[in-house]
Amino acid sequence: MEYFDEHERIRFPDPSRADPWGLLASGGNLSPGIVLSAYEQGIFPWYDEDPILWFSPDPRFVLYLDSFRIGKRTRRTLSNGAFTITFDHAFDDVIHGCRTVRKEGTGTWITEEMYDAYRELHRLGYTHSVEVWEDGELVGGLYGVGIGTFFAGESMFSRVRDASKFAFTALVGYFDLLGAPMIDCQSYTGYLASFGATEIPRDRFLTEIGPLQERAPSGPGWESVDGAEMLRRGLERNAGSRPVRPQ
């Protein structure tokens, strides 16, 4: 398949044609226009070796910010200021960490082709990272794809205990600032379920992401975000003291 730049788009098969595991299509390449086409249509690549496999699972696993929850011990840990948090300061290092560190059940294998593709998308402004630092050393983080106020989380890692929790809570704080109601977590993990992520029907997911992608973010850009402030906002989104969004 030919290379498609970030301004070009293709049409994937209807997600209703995916098999029971969510596999919808195979082949193609990871040029920017194809990858962005996929995410805009609720599809993502996930594979270990060629051909590229494209998935649109049903149900879809998402976190509604109104359902975000953290336990008392985690709240105490996140409130102690042990780490420094930045956004989009070390994307390449974060995706490298996600390739090499597999803790808390959150990592997935990232092929060399995917590594290069997401780095290119970062250069184009479509992939972003949250970094967690301890004494100047990168100890955790996450990355994903952002289109408008829609964000699809791809992977996270921790080199020390709780680092990925800091990253994820700060991410929640940033999307609270943007007024976005949901973060796409793609497929179920017990780790993210512990934060309140839940499964919803694919049709509902596809209906909800369209308006989010079309709405331009307002507020500070990723590189200028105050990580400490986003962590504070994330902590304030704890659902324990507010009604949970009906599912």
Task: Describe it.
It is a single chain. This protein has 247 residues and is α+β, with helices and mostly antiparallel strands. The chain folds into 2 domains: 15-58, Leucyl/phenylalanyl-tRNA-protein transferase, N-terminal domain (Alpha-Beta Plaits); 61-241, 3-Layer(aba) Sandwich (Aminopeptidase), CATH 3.40.630.70. Helix content is 33%, strand content 22%. The chain has helices spanning 32-40, 72-78, 91-100, 112-123, 163-178, 190-193, 202-214, 227-236; strands at 23-26, 44-45, 53-55, 60-64, 84-87, 127-134, 137-147, 150-158, 182-186, 198-200. The strands form 3 sheets. Strands 5-6-7-8 form a 4-stranded antiparallel beta sheet, with helices on both faces. It has a 3-stranded antiparallel beta sheet with strand order 1-3-2, with helices on one face. A 3-stranded antiparallel beta sheet has the order 9-4-10. Strand 6 (127-134) and strand 7 form a beta hairpin. Helix 3 packs antiparallel against helix 4 and helix 5 packs across helix 8. The protein is globular, with a radius of gyration of 17 Å. The termini are far apart.
